[in-house]
Specification:
The protein is built from 4 helices and 13 strands.
Length: about 200
């Protein structure tokens, strides 16, 4: 999404101080004020592939203001919404009706959120370490150096984020004592090989 759209979204949430709904200093993990429901117009969902409006009760921003935790009124569940996927925000006059159900999930350093966490341990080359810090700055707190390698030992809320990172730098990273992650990666490569073989076979016909 172009930067101007993202800034427009922040403008509604952060700078419209004449509204009763805003969030405090973004640099300090701002808490949402006003306790009003909002409509996220044109929200793009990667999971469903749909672009539609979401009616939510937003109750907290993530570190660096990348995500909003909100209670999805239509689905009666807490979800994480990416700021970059929001077209614009419309503040309603309706007060929260589900505050007792608000529950924030845990977001790992790869920006994946969930309520269950899995320990992972990776051995990284200097290249992998540098890319990790550049793309996922919060991972730096869980890094340590051992000889000429770097060790990342952290908890993840899902395998998608760390899995994509490892697969993209497979020759620069070694998975250590992390069976769930290793299984995730093995399955990915098996499916990749099968799909590649099918695609090559189709080219013959």
């Amino acid at each position: 999404m172009p930067p101007k759209v993202r800034q427009k979204t922040f403008g509604v949430l952060n700078h419209s101080t004449n509204e009763v709904y805003y969030y405090n200093d973004c640099r300090k993990r701002g808490s949402l004020q006003g306790k009003k429901t909002v409509i996220l117009n044109g929200y793009e969902s990667s999971h469903s592939g749909e672009v539609r409006d979401r009616l939510i009760e937003p109750f907290e921003l993530s570190t660096n203001c990348i995500d909003i935790w909100g209670y999805d009124i239509d689905k009666n569940e807490n979800k994480v919404f990416k700021i970059s996927r929001i077209g614009k925000v419309k503040v309603k006059n309706d007060d929260w009706a589900n505050e007792n159900r608000h529950q924030k999930s845990k977001t790992d350093c790869f920006r994946i959120s969930g309520y269950m966490q899995t320990p992972v341990k990776l051995e990284l080359s200097m290249m992998a370490k540098n890319i990790l810090i550049e793309e996922y700055p919060l991972a730096e707190q869980d890094l340590r150096k051992e000889g000429d390698k770097w060790i990342l030992e952290t908890l993840v809320s899902g395998l998608e984020g760390v899995g994509r990172f490892v697969i993209g730098l497979a020759h620069e990273i070694k998975v250590i004592d992390s069976p769930r992650l290793q299984n995730y990666i093995d399955i990915f490569f098996k499916v990749f090989v099968i799909n590649k073989a099918i695609a090559q076979e189709q080219l013959l016909y």
